[in-house]
Amino acid sequence: YLNARINAFIKVNELDKALIDCELMEKKQKGSSALLQTKIYLLKKDIANAEKALLINLKSTHKISLYELLTDAEFRKIQDSNFIDSILRTSIYSATEKQIFKVEKYINNGNYNEAFFLANEIINRNPNIADAYYLLSKINLYNSELKSAKSTIDNAIFLRSSDINFYLQRIAINEKLSEHSEVLSDVYKLLRLNPYNPDFYILKAEALLNNSEFDKAIKQADFYLELYPQNSEALYIKASSYFQKGENLEALQYINESLKNTKSIKQFELRGDIYMKTATYHFAEMDYSMALDLDARNGEMWTKKGFARYQSGNKTGACADWEKG
């Protein structure tokens, strides 16, 4: 709760109130708020106190990763300082942690082969480094090696089951594998780890939709819309849930609202599907065309557009679309 409130104070620039809450966090666990204090002092342009707070963090169990410290924009004011240089000359970061940094840098620069070999080298030397498995999973996912990506992130979570990024990685993999029940299970774990992150509630709504729990998905989307009215993704989830329930008028209402703020392939596709269900084929054809304007290489969309044209009686146009598909 305190962590969430501190971040909220930071967002509204009430930095002194954020620091008061940091002191409360410190009384509960030493070093737990030091990184937040570092960020706050940097926002206040108080470099000296930012450096003091960072040193406390580096000596705690909440130590910031070397990659985040050297690349995150929040630390830009000290990244090129003598202070950081002095830290790198010490043993605060181990040789393995510095190699983990190199793997992350390789990934960020698109050098996946180098990242793959170095991550495996770290694991072969010490099979208990959770971050190495996590990064190897990211590499495998990039290479579409989904089973390997899944097994390596499972290893990472086994070694450190409290890391939110690990669960987000496994969710991304399971979504590609269409393992919807496992996605929902991991979303619940995310919410237990941090119930104050609103983004996790939209993840939950989407996972409920994919598990055919449509009423629960609608309720969860409504909860999110109370926090972020007119959020396109929440409105899309409501529209899709109503469509799956066969309630097409409600589905059309919410997809139209969703399209007021953003426009994507899946939104146009859903509205096209709704129009197809209601035998409004001309409007369906228009929506599939708008989806194809965003991605003309989508074969499935050409197929759907062709079927809409066929149902409208335009067999020549349908055949042309199917050939393109």
Structural notes for this entry:
There is one protein chain. The chain is mainly alpha-helical and 325 residues long. The protein is built from 21 helices and no strands. The chain has helices at 2-11, 15-28, 34-43, 47-58, 66-71, 76-79, 82-88, 95-108, 112-125, 130-142, 146-159, 164-176, 180-193, 199-210, 214-227, 232-244, 248-258, 265-277, 281-294, 299-311, 315-324. α1 (2-11) runs antiparallel to α2 (15-28), α2 (15-28) packs antiparallel against α3 (34-43) and α19 (281-294) packs antiparallel against α20 (299-311). It is globular, with a radius of gyration of 24 Å.
Write the layout of secondary structure elements.
Blueprint lengths: L1 H10 L3 H14 L5 H10 L3 H12 L7 H6 L4 H4 L2 H7 L6 H14 L3 H14 L4 H13 L3 H14 L4 H13 L3 H14 L5 H12 L3 H14 L4 H13 L3 H11 L6 H13 L3 H14 L4 H13 L3 H10 L1
Alpha carbon gap, first and last residue: 51 Å
Total beta-strand segments: 0
**Total of helices:** 21
H-E order = HHHHHHHHHHHHHHHHHHHHH
What oligomeric state best describes the polypeptide chains here? single chain
- Proportion of helical residues: over 70%
Unreliably modeled segments: none
Instruction: Give the overall silhouette.
Output: globular
What is the radius of gyration?
Answer: 24 Å
> What composes the largest sheet?
none
What does the average pLDDT come to? 96
- Which class do the helix and strand fractions yield? mainly alpha
